[in-house]
From TrEMBL:
One of its GO terms (molecular function) is ATP hydrolysis activity. Coiled coil: none annotated. Pfam families: ABC_tran. Residues 5-235 form the ABC transporter domain. It comes from the Bacteria. PANTHER family: ABC TRANSPORTER ATP-BINDING PROTEIN ALBC-RELATED. This is ATP-binding cassette domain-containing protein. PROSITE patterns: ABC_TRANSPORTER_2. Keywords: ATP-binding, Nucleotide-binding, Transport. InterPro entries: AAA+_ATPase (IPR003593), ABC_transporter-like_ATP-bd (IPR003439), ABC_Transporter_VariousFunc (IPR051782), P-loop_NTPase (IPR027417). The keyword ATP-binding applies.
Amino acid sequence: MADVLSLNHVAKHFENHQVLRDVTFAIPAGQIVGYIGQNGAGKSTTLKIILGLEEPSDGEITILGQSLHDQRDALMQRIGYVPENADIFEALTANEYLSFIGQLYGLTEADARYKGQQLLTILDNGDSFNKPISSFSKGMRQSVLIIASLLHNPDLLFWDEPLNGLDANTVLIIEEVLGKLRDQGKTIFYSSHILDVVQAVSDQILLLHDGQVAAHGTFADLSNSADTTLQQLFNDMTGFKEHGEKAQAFIDVLGVS
């Protein structure tokens, strides 16, 4: 199976600060990749480099068999992205926003509007299609962002905390959608701090620590036993073992007995 994404010896530094060190991995088509790491581990920088928003200091990135450096604009048309903190045009209606995003990706206005309305209706928000996004709840805004990332039927998806604010029913739908997209050969980078969800939906785990790939493989291959959780694996790989002690200190400060 051909690799959809590969990074070879990618490094990034800002002045005297080394953010990424020799990051190398390859991802085949049809995989959900749980992309995890502590804050400051280099996840966001790696993602910005893959999306062409930052230039690497060293190394090569290949997407769908093509060099990112040589084919950036064409490759971005085949990628969908849900950022953790998105700047969304709140004065626009969902109709206007999704039509605009769809046209950026080469859809006609009519096609973008049709798909956007149909998808929002499936998520039980169709009656808000012509209302301003400023009136939407956090979960409704998140639904719009997810739909915007999928309108152009991309081959590669990057979703950062995609379930933020969604109600329980919508979470179930989106998790099912993830599996069906994977079965169609799509590749999804799924980044979240909710590690039990990452463990449940992912085919592979990619853990960044201190600007390097600390672990990459299936959860079964990475775990020590059937009883190991991704949270335990994460703590072991990152060396964080003080959670119990810090939790008790927190309670002590509160004076809870």
